[in-house]
Automatic annotation (TrEMBL):
Annotated EC: 2.3.1.31
Annotated catalytic residues: 144 (acyl-thioester intermediate), 237 (proton acceptor), 239
GO CC term (a single one): cytoplasm
Cited NCBIfam families: metA (TIGR01001)
Catalytic activity reported: L-homoserine + acetyl-CoA = O-acetyl-L-homoserine + CoA
Span of the signal peptide: none
Family: Belongs to the MetA family.
Entry keyword Protein biosynthesis: no
Marked site: Important for substrate specificity: 194
Annotated site residues (Important for acyl-CoA specificity) in this chain: 113
Localization: Cytoplasm
Keywords: Acyltransferase, Amino-acid biosynthesis, Cytoplasm, Methionine biosynthesis, Transferase
UniProt name for this protein: Homoserine O-acetyltransferase
Length: 305
């Protein structure tokens, strides 16, 4: 079944060309089912690219998913197309004020990881979203800085600066093979990483509410869960498309920044060659497993949350 998004959303045409199942409001209204309601709090500066990346994965499911895009009302985005946020997004305070309920919520990463959390201009608003989601969302998926922010706000887990940026495609292990999110996974799988900091593993392990589901010595903690899967914290970017790391690498080069070639990404670590995608299948599987978990566990009547 498809994801439900406006036909005027730029991602609609891009996903249709890829044969991703999408559906318009008119057609959805004539289907006698309750779609999953999933909100996406998009904090990434690459607004449209991030929409497409996440919708591509959410659309590869037998479930109909009704998508809502959320933004920080206290933060002015400089990178979204003119009028895009006003047309397709609602502010988080509107969602909270109207006591809106979601089956699932995704909180993306953001390019603010070197700042102390409290110095991020929308921190108080994000903290309010995190508090709201605990009571009004069945399962929340936090990505990269969004994961660090969630672990810090809810459990006091600090972030630590890495000696150098963790950048590239890395193998990850599975600690618990029989959990819902890893159904069908191989014992080792690849996923993109792009970050300067990490959440403190000792602080995570000290909290009995938190379970480290995936980690390696090279990457550190990759996936943490809490409340039996109702909170997922993913430190990397399974949603990245084939050229995302390439764009980040060349962007930093153009800025004159000291940046390593993304590891295990270009054939022979040669940036002149086309990257090889080796994480796509597990990315789709992860998001399908998450949606399936939400579908199986969320109340039919969201008022019961």
């Amino acid at each position: 079944m498809p994801i439900k998004i406006p036909k005027t959303l730029p991602a609609y045409n891009a996903l249709t060309k890829e044969n991703v199942f999408v559906i318009t409001d008119d057609r959805a209204e004539h289907q006698d089912i309750r779609p999953l309601k999933v909100g996406i709090l998009n904090l990434m500066p690459t607004t449209v690219d991030t929409e497409i990346q996440l919708l591509r994965l959410l659309g590869n499911s037998p479930l109909q998913v009704d998508i809502s895009f959320l933004r920080m009302g206290s933060h002015e985005s400089r990178n979204a197309p003119p009028g895009h946020l006003d047309r397709f997004y609602v502010s988080s305070d509107e969602i909270i004020r109207n006591d809106y309920r979601y089956d699932g919520l995704i909180i993306t990463g953001a390019p603010v990881e070197t700042l102390p959390f409290e110095e991020v201009d929308y921190w108080k608003e994000l903290a309010a979203v995190l508090d709201y989601s605990a009571k009004n969302v069945w399962s929340t998926l936090h990505i990269c800085w969004g994961a660090q922010a969630g672990l810090y706000h809810r459990y006091g887990v600090p972030k630590l600066e890495l000696p150098r940026k963790l950048f590239g495609i890395f193998p990850h292990g599975v600690n618990e093979r029989h959990t819902t999110i890893f159904r069908g996974f191989d014992d080792e799988f690849l996923a993109p990483q792009s970050r300067h900091t990490e959440s403190d593993r000792k602080a995570i392990a000290a909290r009995p509410e938190l379970t480290i589901e995936s980690e390696t010595d090279e990457v550190g903690v990759f996936i943490v869960t809490a409340r039996e899967g109702r909170e997922l914290y993913v430190t990397g970017h399974l949603e990245y498309d084939p050229l995302t790391l390439d764009r980040e690498y060349r962007r930093d080069l153009d800025k004159g920044l000291l940046i390593n070639v993304p590891k295990n990404y270009y054939p022979g670590d040669d940036p002149s060659k086309e990257p090889v995608v080796r994480w796509r299948a597990h990315a789709h599987l992860f998001f399908r497993n998450w949606l399936n978990y939400v579908y199986q566990e969320t109340p039919f009547d969201l008022g019961e949350l």
